[in-house]
Amino acid sequence: MRKLLLLTTVILVGLVFIARLFYLQVYGGYEYDIFEDTAIKKEFTYPKRGYVYDRNGKLLVANQPSYDVMVIPREVEPMTPEDLTEFCNLLKITKEEYNKKLERAKNYSPRLPSPFVPQLSKSDYAVLQEKMRKYAGFYIQKRSLRSYQTTIGANVLGDIGEVNRSIIEKQPYYKLGDLIGKQGVEQSYEEILRGTKGIKFIQKDRFNKSIGPFKEGRFDTLPVPGKDITITIDSDLQAYGELLMQHKRGGIVAIEPNSGEILAMVTGPSYNPNILVGRNRSKNYTKLHYDSIAKPLFDRGLLAQYPPGSPFKVINALIGLQEGVVDEHDTFSCRMGYYYGSRRLTGCHHHRSPVDMNMGIAQSCNAYFVNVYRRIIDKYKDAGDGMNIWANHAKSFGLGDFLNNDLSVGRPGRIPNGDYYDRAYGDNRWGSTYNVSNAIGQGEVEATPIQLANMAAAIGNRGYYYTPHIIKNIEGDTIPSNFTTPKYTSIDRKHFEPVIEGMFDVYNDGTAKSLRVEGIEICGKTGTAENFAIVNGKKTQLTDHSIFVAFAPKDNPKIAIAVFVENGYWGSRFAGRMASLMIEKYIKGSITRTDLENWILTHSLEDEYAKPISDEPFKINGETTLQVIDNYAIKLEDQETLKQ
Amino acid sequence: MLRENQRRFKFDWVTIILFLLLVGFGYVNILSASHDGEVTSYLNMTELYGKQLVFIGLTFVIIILILSLEAKFYERFSSIIYLAAILLLVGLFIFGKDVNGARSWYGIGSMTIQPSEFAKFATALAVAKYISDLQTNMKTLKDQIRVAAIIFIPALLILLQNDAGSTIVYTAFFFVFYREGLQQIYLIVALSLIVLAVISLKFGIIATTIVAAVALTIRYLVRKKKRASKLQYVLVLFLAIGYGYGVKAFYKHGLQIHQQNRISLWLRLEKDPAKLERMRKSEAYNLIQSEEAISSGGLTGKGFLQGTRTTGKFVPEQETDYIFSTVGEEWGFAGSSIVVFLFVFLIIRILYLAEAQKSQFSRVYGYGVASILFIHFTINIGMVMGLIPTVGIPLPFFSYGGSGLWGFTILLFIFVKLDSNKINEW
């Protein structure tokens, strides 16, 4: 027995050691990550971020240098009170802030760098750089910030900001303090614009002194500069759209039909992109972010999903023709609405009767389109089948689903199909009379302005569209083929002519007669959408939205446009005027309809927007009076800055 | 003549191969731990790995010398060797040279010699000699005291030179004494003292009282026949409690600050985060760096000369006491386990050979060799991995240093020689 004591002890100790080694190296041992290795210093070289140009080669976004003070908390050594005071003074922070910032950085990671004071001014940097050696654990990281050459297009261009921790977890390329595109093309073309940062790995010793490149620099990489991009935006048109949108909320999307290129993408209210650069960025961003009433960060051109109203009627006309349930000469009577038995399913305004297709579109007759719509659905024995056929036609115009384009945000809209109503009412327990609102773009149909603009482009092209996109050219690269292949609608080319004639007559002698522009054949369609909001816990109707969809010229259109103005009351009142002006601006380069321009610039909807939050009873639509403002000062000032 | 030749080469090659593997792998790791940039010449005498290579070369001269002497020489001259070692230790007080606060070195020109490394095999020889004497009976108190004196003299001298680590090594002989007949009660008492000390420091006197009371009650109930009086059990309980207080008092007032801190870190007694943060940068720095280096090695390690912490010299003393952290970082779990296995295998091999000896002197000496290697192996690797409080002793055959390498080589190869001679022992 005595022989066994040492023997068993030796074996036991051996097993304990193996277990401990297993615990340290295999079980608790993390996957080796050089970025976590404190013995290796990582020096990043940030490449130039790509520039952004507009379609005419005008520079919109460039760069400016910026200097961040970074900290590695573990390497910070206690400073003498004098040093600390001096350091705080140089950084323009208090000692309390110093301690708080250091604590926060330590909480993130004691061994990884965190930004300590971001974006120093150039003069602060010059002074600080001399003394940086004195402060162990701190260093200056040079980065490049955006420098906007324009005051417009904040929603189009987007901005760059520091990555947050959830991004770092998902994309290990980014380290704390790195900048990433947020919103707009900065976000959707992040990887192209950003390039790839260069890394130098440097072996350190325990005194934190560099002792040479790690493995002879085998893993070091050179920075790859970001590529410049040209976007499809016409900055003059964009600026003009933003000018028109002042004091209104809404969106404008203009597309070049024969390419799908987005010419303008306006949202109102907007902001000057320059306020999101530099040390005030976070303060300004917070302000924009928490403005839950005007929602300046909500890109209405892309996200405002509403029943499109009358512009959708032309789709029903096209489907009717394609399905052969109606031809352009068929007429229906309209007695101020559509009657099912003795029940009026939908109202209409005053116009001549009976109505053929041309007049139906030009006069936006509700009864005409309910008739067409019911014939489409009722052509099939099962209403569900009819509904599905109808929905597929509508969807072939890019409605009811995401457009799959290169914008950072979007909404799918909605085109209901048979299943949708089966779920709502039960299988076969409904018919076309249940949802006639779809005939006139109300009810369950919803679309965003960009979808409507694309729809206009598809009509203008007589049956096809290119996915609306914002990239025109990438330096030394091609744009995705998805954007250069036409998408065909399910409607034959021949059916478009009568519909387009109808849309042309909207301008000739229809609902947009007063918006004609000399020398340009515009085809359009007005729209008005009822809308509701919850005010003090009660569903309350607000003034209707003003919607307008158009393309011009009639043959070989150069521009297709959708304008949406919140609470603008009726289609031609705000949206129609703005559409005409945008079209004239783009095609002629100057404005002859200065009467329209003056009207838009001197009429504000701010009063209208204040109503639901005023806590007072308010009136809507016809019972309201429009706010008139003197806008010339602002207009001139803005045009001055635009010229710069 | 033929038989003579056969005998001469009848060494235990398993032991020799294990020795060569350990020395060789040790050198590889010293090279990693001590190289600065490019390795231009392996014999670069300004670098530690160059010197170590020379030490290893001289080791073979020593081995040949040891193996060529008559086996009987070591038994016959054991007393003289022991006395010489004691004299060398005493001489340190007059001629010695201070290194890191310990007066344990002789300086000869640019060379330094650490006599405590040689005192180990000398003591092992003396212990073997004394125990193997026909008149010695380890069960008698008289012989126990005498044999204890043999190890206390060098241990005390070394402690006085402020080298507490090397002193602890002499506890190794407890295994030898136990094998040779020391009563079981010593083992029980020794284990109890260690356990109670840890419990007193970590959980306090109340826990000590409870554990001691429970243990004594169990012993009382189990030993129905030969049990002592209840009064004696109560007396032992009070002794245990008094011992607990004694340990706490010794911890607070008897230990030097750095020793106190090491124990505090090991038992995680310090709870104040500010103080812990300070300790991370001072007392705990070595340990944290060493553990992180080992952990970062993962399953297969970063590869020879590829350890980032080793290259950056993050672990202080890495080529000497902390050499195992290099193994951990560069060779990973696989390499470290092999080293642990080699040591365990070597010690078991020596134990096996020792038990097969026909002369008691050879057996006791072999046991001494195994015990000394075992204590070094346990304390050093345990410390580097944070299982044992920091104690500065080298890892045999691995750590940088001539005295250490030679001391262990002599220790081991005297046994190899004795073992080769067992045929003549009739």
What is the fold's blueprint, element by element?
The complex is a heterodimer of chains A (644) and B (426).
Chain A: H1 4-27, E1 40-45, E2 52-53, E3 59-71, H2 81-91, H3 95-108, E4 114-120, H4 122-131, E5 138-148, H5 154-157, E6 159-162, H6 165-170, E7 179-182, H7 184-188, H8 190-194, E8 198-204, E9 210-213, E10 229-231, H9 235-244, E11 250-256, E12 261-268, H10 281-289, H11 300-303, H12 313-323, E13 337-340, E14 343-347, H13 357-362, H14 366-378, H15 383-395, H16 418-425, H17 449-460, E15 464-465, E16 471-474, E17 487-488, H18 496-509, E18 523-535, E19 538-552, E20 559-565, H19 572-588, H20 594-602, E21 603-604, H21 606-610, E22 627-628, H22 632-643
Parallel strand pairs in A: 2-10
Antiparallel strand pairs in A: 1-8, 2-3, 3-4, 3-5, 6-7, 8-9, 10-16, 11-12, 11-20, 13-14, 15-17, 18-19, 19-20, 21-22
Helix pairs in contact in A: 9-19, 12-14, 15-16
Chain B: H1 2-8, H2 13-34, H3 48-68, H4 71-76, H5 78-95, E1 97-99, E2 102-108, E3 111-113, H6 115-132, H7 141-160, H8 164-168, H9 173-179, H10 184-203, H11 205-222, H12 230-254, H13 257-266, H14 273-281, H15 285-296, H16 308-311, H17 323-355, H18 360-384, H19 402-420
Helix pairs in contact in B: 2-3, 2-17, 3-19, 5-6, 5-7, 6-7, 6-18, 6-19, 9-18, 10-11, 10-12, 11-12, 15-17, 17-18, 18-19
Protein name (chain A): Penicillin-binding protein 2
Domain Penicillin-binding protein dimerisation (chain A): 46-210
Membrane topology (chain A): Single-pass membrane protein
Structural features, described:
The complex is a heterodimer of chains A (644) and B (426). With 644 residues, chain A is an alpha+beta fold. Chain A folds into two domains: 41-231, Penicillin-binding protein 2a (Domain 2), CATH 3.90.1310; 235-643, DD-peptidase/beta-lactamase superfamily (Beta-lactamase), CATH 3.40.710. Helices cover 34% and strands 20% of the residues of chain A. Chain A is built from 22 helices and 22 strands. In chain A, the strands form seven sheets. In chain A, strands 2, 3, 4, 5, 10 and 16 form a six-stranded mixed β-sheet that branches. In chain A, helix 9 (235-244) packs antiparallel against helix 19, helix 12 packs across helix 14 and helix 15 (383-395) crosses helix 16. The radius of gyration of chain A is 31 Å and the shape is elongated. The termini of chain A are far apart. Chain B has 426 residues and is mainly alpha-helical. Chain B folds into two domains: 2-181 and 333-425, no CATH class; 189-254, no CATH class. In chain B, 70% of the residues lie in helices and 3% in strands. Chain B has helices at 2-8, 13-34, 48-68, 71-76, 78-95, 115-132, 141-160, 164-168, 173-179, 184-203, 205-222, 230-254, 257-266, 273-281, 285-296, 308-311, 323-355, 360-384, 402-420, and strands at residues 97-99, 102-108, 111-113. Chain B has a three-stranded antiparallel β-sheet, with helices on one face. In chain B, strand 2 and strand 3 form a beta hairpin. The two termini of chain B are 19 Å apart. The mean pLDDT of chain B is 89. Chain A binds chain B through residues 2-3, 5-7, 9-11, 13-14, 16-18, 20-22, 24-26, 28-32, 37-40, 203-206, 211-212, 214-215, and chain B through 37, 175, 178-179, 181, 187, 289, 291-292, 294-299, 302, 306, 308-309, 311-316, 328, 332-333, 336-337, 340-341, 343-344, 347-348, 351, 355, 367, 370-371, 374, 377-378, 381-382, 385, 387.
